[in-house]
Amino acid sequence: MKHLKLFSLTLAALGLLGLSACSSLDISQSKEEEKVTFAASNGEVEVPAHPERIAVQNYPDDIVTLGGNVVGTDSWAFPNPYLSKKQKENMVDLGSPSFNLEKLIAQKPDLIVTVDKSQVSDYEKIAPTVLVNYQEVNTMDKSLNFFAKLLNRENEKEAFIKKFDKKAEAQREKLKNHGIDPAKSRISLLELQGDKIYAYGDNFARGGQALTRGLGFQKSSKMTELSEGMGYAEVNAESLKDFDADYIFVDFKNADRAQYEALQKNPVWKNLKAVKEGHVVTMDYDKVYFFGGPTASMEQLSDYTEALIRQTE
């Protein structure tokens, strides 16, 4: 009788464990299958509430910053030197400008994020697809708000912003200790490509968000115009006087160093305030030209601080 009672109790316990396992499985499955409607540039899109395999153009940094799993991105964004090995562990290069469809299918995404309107219909056949309008996510805060909503990761967003702001404050103090007060200093961003000169706003990579949103530098009037418009413009040497500022940041490839040396001999360049005061800061093109996501911007806080101190003292 005693053994029978023990046997019954054992069966009951196993039954409870079975129910518990089934319950956990049901919850897990329902979480995976849960869908929400997201307002995107291509309309109302039904997306996974908790996407687990994301293919994204342009914005892998923004998604991995929030803890998302990016399984593929475009060839331009893929080399991002600021992302950790862990953040890139499942990420593959899907080609540019459009994704290679065979590679995309092989990654089995449950969400695709694109900036390419012409490809939306093709991508939709593979997974729910969200079209992004650059102007709607052209600053770090706008981008974090957009992707935190899309990925259901508001807590991760708040945690990152706190971390970013804390580091930015420390770097600002470091600059002030070296006689540089960002709040009282105007900047301009320039880039040399072959025989062309480009000027940038603070929302087109090139360290813009690290310098303004992070370190607190003020934009020159022309830089402000670009920030409020297309984000960049081709300029000529004669018009560089319009971009004069307390500090000018210039990036270029090693192959274009001769162009920078030629620019330094230009009379207009020589007469710029930043040039006369030795406040021209050169940056590594390969590290800043395309990478302006949240994680990149946070790492660039120290990159630009060190470059300022090194090149202007």
UniProtKB/TrEMBL annotation:
Pfam families, per database record: Peripla_BP_2
Protein name: Iron-hydroxamate ABC transporter substrate-binding protein
Family designation: Belongs to the bacterial solute-binding protein 8 family.
UniProt keywords, alphabetically: Signal, Transport
Start and end residues of each Fe/B12 periplasmic-binding domain: 52-312
PROSITE patterns cross-referenced by the UniProt entry: FE_B12_PBP, PROKAR_LIPOPROTEIN
SUPFAM superfamilies: Helical backbone' metal receptor (SSF53807)
Localization of this protein: Cell envelope
InterPro entries tied to this protein: ABC_transptr_periplasmic_BD (IPR002491), Bact_iron-sidero_bind (IPR051313)
Signal sequence bounds: 1-23
